[in-house]
Design goal:
The complex is a heterodimer of chains A (277) and B (399).
Chain A: H1 3-13, E1 18-24, H2 30-42, E2 48-51, H3 62-73, H4 78-89, E3 97-101, H5 103-109, H6 111-121, E4 125-128, H7 137-145, E5 149-150, E6 153-154, H8 160-169, E7 174-177, H9 190-201, E8 208-211, H10 217-224, E9 229-232, H11 234-242, H12 248-264
Parallel strand pairs in A: 1-2, 1-9, 2-3, 3-4, 4-5, 6-7, 7-8, 8-9
Helix pairs in contact in A: 2-4, 2-12, 4-6, 10-12, 11-12
Chain B: E1 12-13, E2 16-20, H1 23-40, H2 43-57, E3 63-65, H3 67-73, E4 77-82, H4 92-105, E5 110-115, H5 119-131, E6 134-140, H6 141-146, H7 148-156, E7 160-164, H8 171-184, E8 189-192, H9 202-210, H10 212-225, E9 231-235, H11 240-246, E10 256-264, H12 275-278, E11 280-284, E12 286-291, H13 316-323, E13 328-333, H14 334-348, H15 354-366, E14 375-380, H16 388-394
Parallel strand pairs in B: 4-14, 5-6, 5-8, 6-7, 9-10, 9-14, 10-13
Antiparallel strand pairs in B: 1-2, 2-12, 3-4, 11-12
The chains are: A alpha/beta (277), B alpha/beta (399).
Chain lengths: 277, 399
């Protein structure tokens, strides 16, 4: 069992929902990113999504665009991202790390070199925003060779036949984009999410994470009642953007702990009384 | 050459093209592809398209023999396909008319567009006014500054121009922002991409609408000269005017096809936009194609005196035509383009767009190496009124 599977299997036995934070590698700088990753695990996240900065982040809203620009000021490359993951792995062998980014830096490096370096540094999975399943046959084959999980996005408009296609390719978990628009937008319909998740679960047998539009504990808790994982990106990146260097780790820690608490106090069929106490 | 039938059904031109977008855009693209595939073969749609091109755009555009300039250069005869005479002053309107007609049939009430020089924005604002649609144009804030006249033209036509402050604040960033708008408002919004780039079906669809240029030229050449030209020359930014001229000629193997990119301050400097001449394949804006990028795969800021060529990618069909050797790609510098701009003004009384001046610059280089009975057909893709401030500035004059 790999790290991602172990985490979800443990959570399932505890009837808990995974908390997955997103931060951009190199924002505000490389050393802080590694410290932030450790801070996140201390604040009890289950898996870390690490953004690979790109000059043209087409699917991201202004908050994550700006974080990418801050990282690129230091010319953060994929090699630097792998170095950060390797540094993190020196003292953390358990927390899965999933990279999230755009195709071109990978194209520039080449699939073979990429999977070699990713595997060597301790990366567990990767989501490439602009590699939809149709264009991913060779890519997924390369990831599978090194046992790196290909993570895919699903959206409110994904058709049944494409859900099946993703079900065949995806490993680790799938990432359901809970609303139309870009990251950081804020108009989430919980009923829609519930309906779509039941449709997805007919085909998708691995855990389903939900992200886009989750900005506070209350929404996180509601999502946690429906999904296997809650992904929070823009809200955390905002905290990084607005914190002074000296307070950054503590501020992010406080925010993530409050989200953790919210998610863990979800009401569910077996646990709704306990969490009132 | 065997019959050319690219792209394949998934939008691939050999290894290029495709649909490299986030999941959130896939269903919108699927819907667009289905609708376009239907209307592409629909006689009523095609009839309306050609009626609009004739009565609204003013087609066919003539082929003009630039005799004095050819004599001066002392070699091949230079013929100009006069897309500058179209309504709104450039080839861009061919495509926006086609896409607006499609948007109407898809019952979209709002159109959005990205623009660099502002020509595509103006062409989009124009058709939005013509068909009574809301229009929002995204434009890099740097381009808004450089192309103030076109910004005002769009506003006069009723469009909202949104300056984009992210990234390099130019065309590529405007395209990113338009994509973000589309993802958010896909229910009522149609995105008119202005060039043969972007995800499938855009490169094919924009090519089909622009192919009127080459189809007309083929007929006009036969009627007026009794033969086809020895070479076609067109400027290439994203590459829509070039593919419009080239596409109907792909099977005519005796006709050379030459695309001219922007060499800016020189292809050996960091300040150019010569994607096919200097770039490497990668993925940007929904398709795999040649890109100007650094060793880490980050897109590099480009430079050209002409905002319309200032783009780090290029249409995937050009990437394929380059690799398979059917078309040649060269580059002309800012200075060479400016010289050609002035030459055409003085020898022919025609003020070309700075974009088109790149094609003219290469024609001026090639013509003297050829015989006087050889014919070069240059796509004069737009007129230069919009560029007067830029040209004046180069001569140290402020208007």
């Amino acid at each position: 069992m790999n790290r991602i599977e172990s985490v979800f299997s443990r959570l399932k036995s505890q009837d808990k929902t995974a908390l997955i934070p997103f931060i951009t590698a190199g924002d505000p700088d490389s050393a802080t990113t590694v410290a932030l990753m450790h801070q996140l695990t201390q604040s009890k996240v289950d898996l870390i999504e690490l953004g690979v900065p790109f000059s043209d982040p087409m699917a991201d809203g202004p908050t994550i665009q700006r974080s990418s620009e801050r990282a690129l000021k230091h010319h953060i490359s994929l090699k630097d991202v792998f170095a950060m993951v390797a540094e993190f792995r020196k003292t953390d062998q358990d927390t899965p790390v999933v990279l999230m980014g755009y195709a071109n830096p990978i194209e520039a490096m080449g699939y073979g070199n990429f999977v070699e370096a990713a595997s060597h540094s301790g990366v567990d999975g990767i989501l490439v925003v602009d590699y939809p399943p149709e264009e991913s046959a060779e890519w997924v084959r390369c990831l599978n060779e090194k046992e790196i999980s290909p993570i895919f996005l699903l959206s409110p408009t994904t058709s049944e036949s494409r859900i099946k296609h993703v079900a065949e390719l995806a490993k680790g978990y799938v990432y359901y984009v809970s609303l139309k628009g870009v990251t950081g937008a804020s108009h989430l319909d919980l009923q829609d999410v519930s309906n779509k998740l039941s449709q997805l679960r007919a085909h998708i047998k691995i855990p389903i994470g939900v992200g886009f539009g989750i900005r506070d504990g209350q929404t996180a808790r509601s999502i946690a009642e429906r999904a296997d994982a809650v992904v929070i990106g823009s809200r955390i990146v905002e905290e990084i953007e607005h914190s002074r260097a000296a307070d950054l780790l503590a501020n992010v820690g406080t925010l993530v702990e409050s989200l953790r608490h919210a998610i863990d106090t979800k009401s569910g069929p077996s646990s709704d009384k306990e969490c009132e106490i | 050459m065997k019959i050319y039938d690219l792209p394949d059904k998934c939008g691939h031109f050999g290894p290029y093209g495709g649909t490299f977008v986030a999941e959130t855009l896939i269903s919108a693209l699927d819907e667009l592809r289905r609708q376009y595939e239907y209307y592409r073969g629909d006689a009523e749609f095609q009839t309306e398209f050609f009626r609009e091109l004739k009565h609204y755009v003013g087609r066919p555009s003539p082929i003009y023999h630039a005799r004095r300039w050819s004599d001066h250069l002392g070699g091949a005869q230079i013929l100009l396909k006069r897309e500058d005479l179209n309504h709104t002053g450039a080839h861009k309107i061919n495509n926006t008319v086609g896409q607006a007609l499609l948007a109407r049939r898809m019952e979209k009430s709002r159109i959005i567009a990205e623009t660099g020089a502002g020509q595509h924005g103006v062409a989009s604002a124009t058709v939005a006014a013509r068909y009574g649609m809301e229009c929002v144009v995204y434009m890099g804030s740097e381009d808004v500054r450089r192309q103030a006249t076109n910004v005002y033209r769009m506003k006069l036509l009723g469009a909202t121009v949104i300056p984009v402050d992210s990234g390099s604040r130019t065309l590529k960033d405007a395209l990113n922002e338009a994509m973000r708008d589309w993802v958010t408002n896909v229910g009522n919004t149609y995105y008119i991409i202005g060039t043969v780039a972007g995800p499938h079906p855009y490169p094919m669809m924009v090519r089909d609408f622009q192919a009127v240029i080459g189809n007309e030229a083929k007929q006009q050449m036969q009627e007026e000269y009794g033969r086809q030209p020895d070479a076609l020359i067109a400027c290439v930014g994203g590459g829509s005017n070039a593919i419009g001229l080239f596409y109907p000629y792909i099977g005519e193997e005796n006709v050379r096809m030459i695309g001219v990119e922007a060499a800016g301050k020189g292809v050996d400097t960091q300040k150019h936009a010569a994607t096919l001449v200097t770039g490497r394949p990668g993925v940007l804006h929904g398709n795999r194609t040649y890109l100007i990028q650094d060793e880490n795969g980050q897109i590099i800021e480009t430079h050209s005196i002409s905002a319309g060529l200032d783009y780090p990618g290029v249409g995937p069909e050009h990437a394929w035509l380059k690799d398979c050797g059917r078309a040649e790609y060269v580059a002309a510098t800012d200075d060479e383009a400016l010289a050609a701009f002035h030459a055409l003004c003085r020898f022919e009384g025609i003020m070309p767009a700075l974009e088109s001046s790149h094609a003219l610059a290469y024609a001026a280089k090639l013509a003297p190496t050829l015989r006087k009975d050889q014919l070069l057909l240059v796509n004069l893709s737009g007129r230069g009124d919009k560029d007067m401030a830029t040209v004046a500035q180069q001569s140290g004059i402020s208007l």
